[in-house]
Design a protein that fits this description.
The complex is a heterodimer of chains A (228) and B (53). Chain A is mostly helical and 228 residues long. Chain A is built from ten helices and two strands, in the order ααβααααααααβ. Classes of the chains: A mainly alpha (228), B alpha+beta (53). The interface between A and B is medium-sized, with 18 and 14 residues.
């Protein structure tokens, strides 16, 4: 409390350990009122601001259903009624994930969401999109039907052409299953988490024609109690 | 889908826009739905939202 008045509450101390330094850095960058805000600027009360969270909800359903069918096994999710339901839930949640993500992308593109030092937020969104394409692609090629074989044999030429065919062999079913259930979804979750934290840090991007006082401060006086 | 009389157990039909461009009807439906959602999200009022004045 004795170190000036500029540091936000929780960060007004002099750290002597790396954990203390980490806490000070975290509290300075993402204090609780930014991390878990209770209000949002009034312009967030629009349907176009809902699609980011819809994308995350669809992703969570895809992950949970994916874990369930992985634990159940191929025979279970091809033959039992609950297994078929879980398999369908996995498929359709992925369809909705991409659908919502594309609408989210269009919305943010047309409001130039990289404004206001949000370039890294935009970049992590791009990275999340590309990683999701990888997760979706590996999901398609492990369904082992004729469609999957066609996709895999078309894609192997692409992978060979760019020189990664020897380490990312799309016709190797075991390798594709591993990529689909472990490194790619984990990477996607981590990237999306970073994306959300950056949104929290910089605030939700205002519309281009937002009135000045509303656009200036994420915790503006004109607020609406809605989720971002 | 069976209740709706729609069978998905066959390859998709394609809309041949030009000889070198073709879009499958499932993909076309998804694109139209996304465009519709985008437009509706911009024009529909949000419940509990405040009008600008």
């Amino acid at each position: 409390m004795s170190h000036g008045t500029e540091a936000p509450p929780g960060a007004d101390f002099e750290p002597t350990t790396w954990t203390g330094s980490a806490r000070k850095k975290w509290m300075s960058t993402l204090p609780p009122e930014k991390m878990l805000p209770e209000t949002q600027p009034s312009y967030v009360a629009s349907w176009i601001y809902v699609f980011g969270m819809l994308t995350i909800v669809a992703m969570i359903i895809a992950i949970v259903s994916g874990v369930i069918i992985t634990l159940g096994g191929v025979q279970w999710f091809h033959e039992s009624s609950i297994g078929k339901f879980s398999n369908s839930l996995h498929y359709w949640s992925v369809q909705l994930f991409f659908l919502f993500m594309v609408v989210h992308l269009w919305g943010k593109y047309w409001m130039a969401a990289w404004r206001g030092k949000r370039a890294l937020t935009w970049a992590t969104g791009v990275l999340a999109f590309l990683t999701a394409v990888g997760v979706g692609f590996t999901g398609y090629v492990i369904t082992t039907n004729f469609n999957a074989q066609w996709i895999a044999f078309e894609a192997k030429d692409v992978m060979n052409a760019i020189g990664v065919g020897s380490v990312f062999n799309v016709t190797n079913l075991g390798q594709m299953v591993t990529f689909h259930v472990a490194p790619l979804p984990v990477a996607l979750v981590l990237i999306v988490a970073a994306h959300v934290l950056l949104v929290r840090k910089h605030g939700v991007v205002p519309p281009i024609d937002a009135i000045d006082h509303d656009a200036a401060a994420p915790a503006a006086t004109e607020t609406a109690e809605v989720a971002s | 889908m069976e209740l709706l009389g729609i069978s998905l157990d066959h390859p998709a039909s394609y809309w041949d826009i030009w000889s070198w461009v073709a879009v499958s009807y499932p993909n076309l439906i998804m694109i139209v739905v996304m465009l519709a959602l985008f437009v509706l999200a911009l024009v529909l009022p949000f419940p509990g939202g405040k009008d600008e004045s």
